[in-house]
Each structure stands twice: as C-alpha cells, then as structure tokens.
Amino acid sequence: MPSPNDLTLIGILLLALVTVESGGYFLTRIVRGRVPANALQVSFFRAGHAHAAVLLVLSIAILAVISYAALDGFWLWLASIGVPIAAILMPAGFFLSVLGKDPERPNRLIWLLWAGVAVLTAALITAGIGLIAGGVAAL
Fold this sequence. Notes:
Elements: H1 4-31, H2 39-65, H3 73-96, H4 111-138
Helix pairs in contact: 1-2, 2-3, 3-4
Keywords: Membrane, Transmembrane, Transmembrane helix
Transmembrane segments: 6-27, 48-68, 74-99, 111-138
C-alpha cells in the first residue's frame, strides 16, 4: 500500500500529465506550420514530450509498489523521487537546449538531459534492487 506521501505525489504526477497534454497541442501546432521550428527542434520537442509522458507514468508505477521494497532512508527517497526528478530534467534538457531561432545544434543546457539520465539510472537500479530484496524477503 502506498504511503500518504506517495499517494500525494501520485496525484501531483497525474495532474502534471495535463501539462504533457498541452505539450501535445504545441506539437500539433508545429507540425501544422503554425509555430516555426527547424528539424532539430522538432525532433527534440518530440523527444522531450515523449520522455515527459513516459517518465511520469513510470513514476506512478514505481510509487504504487515502492512501499514493498527493502529500502529505507536515502535509498527509499532516491527510488521514490528519482524518476519524477528525471521526468523534469530530461524533458527540460530536450526543450531548453534547442530554444532560439533556427539552432544548428543543442546549446549548453543539454547537460540537463544527461543529469536526468544519471538520476533515472540511479533511481531505477535502486528501486529494482530494493524490490527484488523485498520480494525475496517476503518468500
């Protein structure tokens, strides 16, 4: 059973998915030519949009089961909040690194993407090991 804190975060994440919907509308405006964007921007905007949605849903799935993990303290915090943090950092890296008029390549804010990758990896490994340990202990 998710903790009250996890349930609150799940509610926040569900509401955050509404912002992903508005991002989808923005993408339809780009592909219809109503918002100017070059090929790099289009591909990064699509990637940012997709990563935001997938990582928010993955966050909800992890929070629904993380209370069964054999984790506590920092490790439980990382497993619980790491994917939601990555759901902010990775799309931000995609979107912010190609802002401007006709960029030829991503700017320095691409580091947000790689920071998100690092946090995501650490959170998934921690959650996975903790859930396996929790499952084995419950046998």
